[in-house]
C-alpha cells in the first residue's frame, strides 16, 4: 500500500516566547538577511511553504510595549514579495485579517503575489474583532465578536468572485498586434451582502493558481465550519496524537456535506522540535530550551495576563498567587483573552498543587514548545506515525531561533523522512503551491461546491 506523504511548512519565528532572541545565533526580525537565510534553508528542505504571522498592533503589558514586541512587526506582503524574488519553489503564505482589510484591495495584492511568484501565494485568513486592534484602523473596534466568521466567510466569497472575473485565457498574445483581451473574457463582479458591496471589473488577470491557497487556524465550532467550507489548509494547535486524531476526524468529517473530498483539505498542526544524539540528550536540551524560552520575567507576565494584577512582587520560583484574578482583566492588551480568568486560575492552581510546580515551572508546562523530542530518526518516525494514522497531514515546523532554528531539522530529520519514503526529494513535478500540497485543481468560474465536485 502506498504510504501517505508528509507535508511540511516552515513558520518564520515571530514575537512570542517560542523564539529565543537572547541566543548567540539569533538574528534580526527586520533585516532581510534573516528572511533570506530562513527561506533558502526551507527550500533546501523541500518544504511546501513558508508561513509568516502578522500583528496589527504592538501588544501592551501594564501600559508598556510588551518586551517580546520591541523588534517590530514587518509588513507580511512586503516580506513575502521580497522572498518570492530569491526563491523558486517554496510557497509563500501570509496571515492577513479579514476584519481590517477590504476584499478588492487584498484580492489584488494576493493575485499580484501569485503572479510574481509563479503561483506560490497563500492566505492565512484570520479574524479580529477587538477594539484594541481596531483602534489602529478607520472603523475602529466596530465588529461584534459573533460576526467575525460571518464577515470572514463573505470576505473570502467576495475575493473568489473577483478572482473568477477573468478567464484563464483572457489575455491573447499575437505577434502582430501584441497582447489584447479576448472578447467576453472578463466579467464584472456584482456582490451585495451584509458586509460588502463590490461592483465592477477586477483589474488583475487570472493568476497561475487562480486563487491563492486558503489557510485558516480557527478552532471553535464556527471556526471548524468555516474551515470545512473555505479552507484548504488548517494551521491546527492539536499536535498531540490523540487530540490530533479527534480534530482530524471532526473537521474532515464535515467536508462531505459541503461536497468536498478528504484530500481537498490538509491539516498541519504547529510543532517544534529538539534533536539529540540520544533521547536523554534531547530531553536535557529540551529542559534548557524551555528555561531559555520562559525567563522569570516572562513567567510572571504570563500569569499576570490571567490575574489582571501586578504580580512583580511574587517569586517566579514560588507558588501561584493566593489572591483571585481581578474582575476586569485589562493588564495585558493585544493578546487572546480567556473567557473566564477565575476558572483558568483555579485549573492552574490544581495542576500546580498536584505536580508541585512553581510559577515558572507551571508556565513551562503550559507553554512548553517542544512537540518532538528525540533523535532525528525517532522524530521522523513520530511525524510519519501522525500522518499515516491520520492525526495530521504533516506539520508547520517552528524553530527556537531566528533565522537558524530550522537548520538542524533540514539537515537531520528531512533525510530520515526521505529514507522512509514519505517525503519528497525534489519539487518536481509540482510548480504551484496548490500542486505541491497535492490539492485538487481549481476550475475557472466554478463555485466552491462545484470546484470540489469537479475534483471528485
From TrEMBL:
Residue span, Luciferase-like domain: 25-318
Entry GO MF terms: monooxygenase activity
InterPro entries listed in its UniProt record: Diverse_substr_monoxygenases (IPR051260), Luciferase-like_dom (IPR011251), Luciferase-like_sf (IPR036661), NTA_MOA (IPR016215)
Keyword terms of this UniProt record: Flavoprotein, FMN, Monooxygenase, Oxidoreductase
Family the entry assigns: Belongs to the NtaA/SnaA/DszA monooxygenase family.
PANTHER family assigned to the protein according to its UniProt record, in alphabetical order: ALKANESULFONATE MONOOXYGENASE-RELATED (PTHR30011), C2H2 FINGER DOMAIN TRANSCRIPTION FACTOR (EUROFUNG)-RELATED (PTHR30011:SF16)
Name listed for the protein in its UniProt record: NtaA/DmoA family FMN-dependent monooxygenase
Amino acid at each position: 500500500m502506498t504510504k501517505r506523504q508528509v507535508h511540511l511548512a516552515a513558520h518564520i519565528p515571530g514575537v512570542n516566547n517560542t523564539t529565543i532572541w537572547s541566543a548567540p545565533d539569533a538574528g534580526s526580525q527586520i533585516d532581510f538577511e534573516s528572511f533570506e537565510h530562513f527561506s533558502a534553508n526551507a527550500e533546501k528542505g523541500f518544504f511546501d511553504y513558508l508561513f509568516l504571522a502578522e500583528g496589527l498592533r504592538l501588544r501592551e503589558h501594564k501600559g508598556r510595549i510588551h518586551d517580546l514586541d520591541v523588534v517590530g512587526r514587518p509588513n507580511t506582503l512586503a516580506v513575502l514579495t521580497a522572498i518570492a524574488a530569491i526563491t523558486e519553489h517554496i510557497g509563500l503564505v501570509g496571515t492577513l485579517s479579514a476584519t481590517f482589510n477590504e476584499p478588492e484591495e487584498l484580492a489584488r495584492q494576493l493575485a499580484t503575489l501569485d503572479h510574481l511568484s509563479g503561483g506560490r501565494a497563500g492566505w492565512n485568513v484570520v479574524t479580529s474583532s477587538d477594539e484594541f486592534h481596531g483602534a489602529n484602523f478607520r472603523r475602529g473596534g466596530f465588529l461584534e465578536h459573533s460576526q467575525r466568521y460571518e464577515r470572514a466567510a463573505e470576505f473570502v466569497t467576495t475575493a473568489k468572485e473577483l478572482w473568477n472575473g477573468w478567464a484563464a485565457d483572457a489575455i491573447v498574445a499575437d505577434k502582430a498586434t501584441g497582447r489584447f483581451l479576448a472578447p467576453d473574457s472578463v466579467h464584472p463582479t456584482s456582490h451585495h451582502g451584509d458586509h460588502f458591496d463590490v461592483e465592477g471589473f477586477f483589474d488583475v488577470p487570472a493568476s497561475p493558481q487562480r486563487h491563492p491557497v486558503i489557510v485558516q487556524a480557527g478552532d471553535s465550532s464556527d471556526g471548524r465550519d468555516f474551515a470545512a467550507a473555505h479552507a484548504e489548509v488548517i494551521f491546527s494547535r492539536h499536535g498531540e496524537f490523540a487530540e490530533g486524531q479527534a480534530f482530524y476526524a471532526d473537521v474532515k468529517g464535515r467536508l462531505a456535506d459541503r461536497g468536498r473530498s478528504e484530500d481537498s483539505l490538509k491539516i498541519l498542526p504547529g510543532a517544534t522540535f529538539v534533536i539529540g544524539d540520544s533521547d536523554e540528550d534531547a530531553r536535557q536540551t529540551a529542559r534548557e530550551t524551555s528555561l531559555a524560552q520562559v525567563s522569570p520575567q516572562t513567567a510572571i507576565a504570563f500569569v499576570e495576563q490571567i490575574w489582571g494584577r501586578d504580580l512583580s512582587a511574587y517569586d517566579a520560583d514560588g507558588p501561584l498567587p493566593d489572591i483571585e484574578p481581578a474582575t476586569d482583566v485589562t493588564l495585558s492588551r493585544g493578546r487572546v483573552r480567556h473567557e473566564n480568568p477565575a476558572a483558568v486560575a483555579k485549573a492552574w492552581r490544581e495542576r500546580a498543587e498536584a505536580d508541585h510546580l512553581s510559577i515558572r515551572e507551571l508556565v513551562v508546562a503550559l507553554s512548553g514548545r517542544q512537540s518532538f523530542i528525540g533523535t532525528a530518526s525517532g522524530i521522523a518516525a513520530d511525524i510519519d506515525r501522525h500522518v499515516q494514522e491520520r492525526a495530521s497531514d504533516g506539520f508547520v515546523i517552528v524553530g527556537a531561533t531566528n533565522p537558524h532554528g530550522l537548520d538542524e531539522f533540514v539537515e537531520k530529520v528531512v533525510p530520515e523522512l526521505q529514507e522512509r519514503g514519505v517525503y519528497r526529494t525534489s519539487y518536481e513535478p509540482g510548480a504551484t503551491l496548490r500542486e505541491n500540497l497535492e490539492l485538487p485543481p481549481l476550475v475557472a468560474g466554478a463555485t466552491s461546491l462545484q470546484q470540489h465536485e469537479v475534483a471528485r
